Amino acid sequence: MTPTLAQRHLTHPGTSTPRATDAHLGARDWAEIQERMLVPLYDAVHERLEVGAGTRLLGLGCGSGLALLMAATRGASVTGVEHLCPERLALARERLLPDGLWDDHAADARLMEGGPEAAVDVGRPPYNMITAFQPIGCMAGDSEGLAPLLERAAPLAERGSTVVLAGWGPPERCTTSSVLRVATRLADPLRSTGSWRPSERDDLEDVAQRAGLKPDGSGRVACPFGYADMDSAVRGLLSTGLFDAAVGATDARQVRKELTESLHPHLRRDGTVWMANVFRYLVARTT
Hints:
Elements: H1 5-8, H2 22-34, H3 39-48, E1 56-60, H4 66-73, E2 77-82, H5 86-96, E3 109-113, E4 127-136, H6 146-153, E5 157-168, H7 176-186, H8 203-210, E6 214-222, E7 225-227, H9 230-238, H10 244-249, H11 252-263, E8 273-275, E9 278-285
Parallel strand pairs: 1-2, 1-4, 2-3, 4-5
Antiparallel strand pairs: 5-9, 6-9, 7-8
Helix pairs in contact: 2-9, 3-4, 6-8, 7-11, 9-11
């Protein structure tokens, strides 16, 4: 059976980006190891909202572009903006705009560095779906910039358009919560920066309300974190950015050591690492 475009690019977006810096390494580890853990979330949202040929999707914080790729393979017209990590955006371009790889799967895709304003195109109809798939509800203050971002994006969409936000589930349903506490403890010298906190039930609703959106349903999705070995688990988790403050407060070697120790309870006999997690998404509407 011939693999779909999304399957071909699920773990490896391309080979043209050199492994030269920590930022490039982290971005590629995210694209090749960690981002696949969120595929059940992306798929559940796309299925529920019937993403397809009539969908004009704007992805905020699109990262390395896997969610956009999955939407594009369903026939959606996709636009992604990324303002925090240009290295991830470069990998998204390899995934969505590679020369000679689309064949009969020609995509209507645009990728820009910047915020929502970069996605303005007076020659196109307005968007009818906006996604913000970077999960919130894990680190203190990780949702603070999201509401203003959504406020700026909403005018680019039709009235009543779908907006999707994502967040971590409750800590008792997320095995990875115990591992993330390593980041909190090591980042203590930075005080509030990077502090882990339990996800609250209404985190996503609060963001939607502050952004002037109207909640219109929600769902939960199992997103287990499964890794081929301990090295992959450490690299994948470090690529999330959730340990950056800990690295800044101590050093990368110390963080890797303690992260590895925290993962040992989740190491299985065959050498794989497995942690069950639940993520939550909120569907809202522009007003």
